[in-house]
Amino acid sequence: MSTSLVTKAATPWRTRTRRAVGRLRRLAAERYQRARVDDGMSTAEYAMATLAACAFAAVLYKVVTSGQVTAALREAITRALGGL
């Protein structure tokens, strides 16, 4: 008789525990799915940053190799080395 009382008293606790575990599992699964949705974003952002860096390098190369900048650099180097 005492066994049936313990079983009946423990049943609500077990039910609540099972429900709580089920909720935690669903929450963990939802978070995992949300995290997986963003997997491709880092690759796309990396590609865009690489493309922007290449475009900036091309513009910088054009500026540095222009006639005015080349002459200014040559003059600065001549002045710096002329004092030696």
Automatic annotation (TrEMBL):
Protein name (database record): DUF4244 domain-containing protein
Species: Streptomyces durbertensis
Pfam families assigned to the protein according to its UniProt record, in alphabetical order: DUF4244
